[in-house]
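Entry 14. Ran structure prediction on the chain below.
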Amino acid sequence: MMHDRNTQLTIDCYLSQGCQSEEALKMSIATALERDGIKADVNFHRLNDDEASSLGLSGSPSVFINGKELQPLGTAGFS
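Output, structure tokens:
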């Protein structure tokens, strides 16, 4: 992803209650940000199935950068 280093990034990660990906996701994001010299506000949110459905999330984890979801549309599987 191309990024203007002068623009602040906000990364929101939504995970189901049982998702085991949080630690690996934290490490991957931190590594990528450090490698590219980018600063970002990174937020993790644990949701139940009803909350995920009401937000229209496509899976767990769902990652958004500045409000745009990274996972392709139509990919189901919130676990």
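The first strand starts at residue 9 and ends at 16. Will compare against last week's run tomorrow.
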